[in-house]
Amino acid sequence: MKKLLVIALAAGVGYFVWRKYTENAEERDLWAEVTDTFE
């Protein structure tokens, strides 16, 4: 039972980190698009 709990917790943390990374990547892409138009 402990292994299942640890696996579920690790999956949850992994999902949260992945969501934050993709959110930040989208924000970086948006800023790159905005700043590239002024050159």
Account of the 3D structure:
The chain is an all-alpha fold. It has one helix at residues 2-36. The longest helix has 35 residues, at 2-36. It is rod-shaped. The N and C termini lie far apart (58 Å). The mean pLDDT is 89.
Helix/strand layout:
Layout: H1 2-36
List keywords for this structure.
mainly alpha, 39 residues, single chain, DLW39-like
* Proportion in β-strands: under 5%
Number of strands: 0
On the 0 to 100 scale, the average pLDDT is: 89
Shape: rod-shaped
Q: Give the low-confidence spans.
A: none
Query: Gyration radius, to the nearest Å?
Result: 17 Å
Give the % helix: over 70%
Largest sheet, strands/sense/barrel: none
Distance between the termini: 58 Å
User: How many DSSP H or I helices?
Assistant: 1
Order of helices and strands: H
SSE-based structural type = mainly alpha
InterPro entries: DLW39-like
Short description:
The chain is mainly α and 39 residues long. It has one helix at 2-36.
